[in-house]
Amino acid sequence: MRHYLLTLCLVAAVTYLLTEPVRKFALHIGAAPEIRARDVHKVRTPRLGGIAMFGGLCAGLVVARGLPELEGVFGGGQPQALLAGTAVIWLIGVLDDKFELDALIKLGGQILAAGIMVLKGLTILWLPVPGYGTVYLNEAQGALLTVALVVVTINAVNFVDGLDGLAAGMLCIAAAAFLMHAYRLWYGYGIEAAQPAALFSAVLVGMCLGFLPHNLHPARIFMGDSGSMLIGTVLAGSAISVTGQVDPDLLVQVTGSTRNATQTMVPVYIPLLLPLTVLALPLADLVLAVVRRSWRGQSPFAADKGHLHHRLLRIGHSHPRAVLIMYFWSALFAFGTVAVSANDGALWIVLGLMAASAGGLVLLLLPRFAPVRGVRGRAVEQAAPSDGGAAVTPSSVASRCR
Question: Does the pLDDT value for residue 266 go beyond 80?
Answer without folding.
Answer: no
